[in-house]
Amino acid sequence: MEESQFEIPPLTQEKVLELIEQAYPNPVTPEDLAKDNGWNEADVLQVIISLQNRGLIKSMAYNSYTRIHHEDKDIKVVQQMPTIASNKQPTIAIITAQYCEKLAVDAMLENKETFVRYTTVDSDSRQNTLRKSSEKLLNGLDRNWHRKRRFGESNVYTLGNIGAHRIVSTKLPSVGSTREAMTATGNTTTRLLGTFQKVDYIFIVGVAGGVPHYTDYKRHVRLGDVVIASSEKSRNIINGNANRKNGPYIYVYGNGEEIQTYYPKNDCLQSLAESLRADPQGKKPWEHYLKEGLLHLQNRTETIFDRPAPNTDKLYMNIGNHEVIEVAHPQPTDAVDGIPATRIHLGPIGSGRDLIRSDNLRTEFAKKHNLLATDVEMSSVLDSVIGNCRDSFILVKGISDYKDGTTTKKWQNFASLAAAAVMKSIICAMDAPTNV
Asked: Which InterPro entries match (predicted)?
C-alpha cells in the first residue's frame, strides 16, 4: 500500500493533459510535471508539443503551459478584476474542482464573460520565494517549490446569468488532503468571496463517489445520479466539532479520530432542493437543462459529455480478504428503454484522509455518518465559506464512481453535467435577488 504512493504513472498525452487541466488556471512547466511524476523532462516536452499541435494547450510565460478553453477567444486576461456595476454584481458563487466540472457549470450560464488573472511573481519576490522554498524543500515540506517560484495562485472567474440571478463560477487550482492543496483551495475561496462581496449563496458543484445500496433501489446511489448535501434535522450526533455538537450536518470530514461537521446557518438552499425532489406534479427540470447543456457543449468543445452506456456502471461488493465480486444493481423502477433516469438524492456527503485508499474505512465511515456520497477534500473550502460569514451553502455532486468521483474518467463528464443541471434547477427556484 505504501509503495503505490510512489508509483510512476505512465507518460501519455491523456495523463499530461489531465494534470494540466487539474492545475488550471495555474500554468505548469515540463519541469514541474517531470519532477512531480518521476518522468524525463525531455520526454514530457515532446508530449506537450503533441498536445499543442492538437490545439489543446498553449504556451505561457516562463516556459509554462495551460489548457486552451473552448471559449478561449472570449477570455480576458487581467492583472486585476475590473470594477463591476452594482446591479451586475453576482449574488451566487459556484465553486468547482475539476476542468470538466467548470465546463459543465458554464454551459448552464447565459451572457458569459470570463476573466483569468495569472499571478506571476516579480523578480525580488521570486528570489525571496526561491530562498524560502529551498529551505522548505530541504525540510521535506514542499515538493512543488519549483512551481511556486514562478507563479502565485492564478484565478479564473466566469460571470453570467441563470434566470434572474447573476452568477460567478470559478475553478480551484488543486484539491486533495496535502497541506499545499488545502491551503490553495481555502485561499482561492477566500479570494473569490473578497472579490465578489455581494455573494450570499455558495454552490460547490462537481463529481463524487456514490454509496451504493445492494438491495433497495430507493436507497441505491448509482452512476449518473446526483446527491445534494442535506440533513435530517432531527438527527443528533456527537462529534469533535465544538461549534456543531449535537446538531444536523450536511458534510463530514474525518481525519483519524478528528471529525468535523458542517451545516449552513441558513438552510434555504436545502429546503429548495427538498421541494424540487418532492414536486407533487413530478416535474424534473434538470432533465431539460441537462439536454440543453449537452447540446451546448457538443457544439463548442471536443470533450464528450454524453451519458455512458449502462453496462459501464459496474457494481462490486467487498467480500473480505481484499476480494470483490461483481453484483447486479437493484432493479430500477423508472428506467426508460433500459436506461435508468438520473435521480436526485438528499443526504450527507463526506470526505477524509485514507478513505479512498481503503474500501473498509470508507464503508464504515459512510455507514457511521449516513453518507450518500464521498468526495475529494472540500473541508478547507467550507472552512473558508463559514469563516467569511456566508450563511447559505450547498454541495451538488454527480456520481461518477463508487469512491470519490475521480478514480475513473468514464462517467466524470456526464456526472458533472448532471450536477450542473440540478444546480440550475435549484437556482431557478430561488427568489430573485433584492440586494443589488
From this structure: HTH_69 (IPR055121), Nucleoside_phosphorylase_sf (IPR035994)
